[in-house]
Amino acid sequence: MRLSARLGCWIACLLLPAAATAGASVVERLRLGLTAEHTRLVFDLSEPLPFHRLQQPEGQTLLLDLAAERLDFDPATINWAGTPVSALRLQPAEPGEPRRLRLSLRQAVSARAFVLGPDAHGGDRLVLDIKRAEPASRSPAVPRLRAVREGWHEGFSRLTFEFDDEVAYEVSQAEGGGPSLAIAFADAMLEPAELASLRGGHSAVAGARLQGDGAVEMVLAEPRRVRDYALAANATRGYRVVLDFYPPALQESAEQPARVSAPLPAAEPDLARAGPEAPQRRQLRRSGNGPRRGAGGMPRRAADSPQASRVPWEFSGTWEQEWAVARDGNQKFEALLDSRVDLALGDLGSLSALGRLRLDAVGDLGPDSQRPWNYSAVNGPWYNDRHAGFDLREFYLDTRLGNTYLRLGKQQVVWGQADGIKVLDVVNPQSFREYILDDFDDSRIPLWMANLEIPLGDAAGLQLLWIPDTTYHEFAEPGTPFELSSPLLVPVAPPGLRLRFDEPDIPGRLFADSDAGLRLRGHLGGWDLGLHYLYSYGDFPVLFQSLARDEAGIYGLVEAEYRRNHLAGVTASNVFGPVALRTELAWNSDTWVVGNNLAEGGVTDSREFSGVVGLDWQWRSDRQLSAQWFHRRLSDHRDSMYRRPSEDFLSLLWLENFANNSWEWRALGLYSVDDEDAMLQLRLRYWWRSDLEVWVGADWFDGEPRGLFGQFDRRDRLVLGLRWGF
């Protein structure tokens, strides 16, 4: 069946229950949304109202006339705390007159009423907006989404949206806990990349997309009852909107009064204390400015009381231990101790520092160099050898200048979402110490930069980057298991010829050698769109080759240099029922390709087009399949180049959660269509407790030495690991 036909059937199934109950004009429920200045009452209707009228007589009273047969909710159950409304009651209807709701007010207000038709947020609705005549003073800045976090408790799962300022919101769901859910944030700045974790990353959500009106539309893996409430900001956390998802078996216990905002609890529930039977997944994909594994991705210490929540600093961390065994014996027995400190600075913002200590009892992965040559003068590890290393992983200040958001310091920025192979995720260089087997969050090398984000209306934003840090890719050292050897990447000397490598000079001028980038993102016709540009030095050095002579005879000389490149790219994504479509396209002005023509220095420059198209399909409730097609094409290909004019790669990612989300299975396969080599990465994880996970897995390579994966054909390994958060 075609996708459009399946989508039509799915939509029809959603509409059948509504059609079955049509025929009576009923106000089914009342939902309430709150901000410091604005109160919204949403009356959910069974069908369009033929008539409504809002009156505001003298005094603190509002009268709302409704041409409805009845109300299916009790006005006395509504909690009006924090609103200008003190009470609502239904007046007896006079013969021939419509039903009238009387709202008693605490102060003078202005009000308006309007009707909304069926859309992604719900069915027919009558909306009443009430605004204080003299609102409390507050910043006109647009609230910005900081993070999306998830947690698992016994009997339900939790999704938390954290903002840097108070935000009004409205949750819409089909009656009875249907398979779709929408949450609309009023006048808030949302990034599509912040919602990447909902692309099958949450057990209750199969897919999500950000609509142009600021609403997040989510497709649920199975019908669930949702409880929503807000949490006030404190010294270490921003304003939070929380969604609790209850499985069908617990729907009755999850039912709450029909309202959007519950009274604000004193502190956020402590996810780290959910108990040994409440596994929590930490692998949230975020835009590159979020917490990393071992830092903000693990549970933090929650406040024990409202007084404790005012402490202006917060500490968290992880200990990760992984043992890898290759064909020829132990490859690593590595401990990573990550720690993070967040310091609240009041109106100045917040300061975050992330440190990492590495200890490896085996040391086969290296490096031997105390300071690898790829690092700039202001970057790199503080101590480093094959058995130990210590580094200030990230260090940045978050602040706001009016409506503009600034992150200043050592950080990561993520532009792409492709699995396995990067297309647009090239702002930060990468460590290839374990090739591409490590998580991208760990293999990216943070850079010192200024990261400015400017909201452009309600549905667009501009990101500007200035990167004076001239740090580039770090490669596995010669003699280590993942040393690059494919002729597609590095020169290969013929038998009997010595080869000498001259390390490149790192560009060091503050302004002339800085990188700069911009990203424009927005929403159009249901699509999340992005335009990207990056002017930078290529992270792969250009390897010029020549023949030279010394006392011992002729040898091959490889001289490395860094050259400039212009990158322009486009991203687009959309959600169609249980299927998410995403694509990344990139054009590079200067891609240097290794070849065999020494007259040209053994390398040749070419323009390159690359792209990826991905489909993410939520299969059943806790299974996801993601398929990708990568394509690369050299516009100025020459016969002397070792690379082909065009190359294609395929990938398949299989994710599955089972046993009440205590277990996770992840399998990622990458295949080169042209070289017929492949890589397979398998992981089986178990959450022993909410803050402790263990895993077992395997990394497998196959193919000829020429290929990007086949060069490691004999580097297969088994892994066993654990991670503990504190």
TrEMBL record:
The keyword Signal applies. Residues 254-311 are annotated as: Disordered. Residues 1-24 form the signal peptide. Coiled coil: none annotated. Keywords: Signal. It comes from the Bacteria. InterPro entries: DUF1302. It holds the Pfam family DUF1302. This is AMIN domain-containing protein. It comes from Parahaliea mediterranea. The lineage of its organism: Bacteria, Pseudomonadati, Pseudomonadota, Gammaproteobacteria, Cellvibrionales.
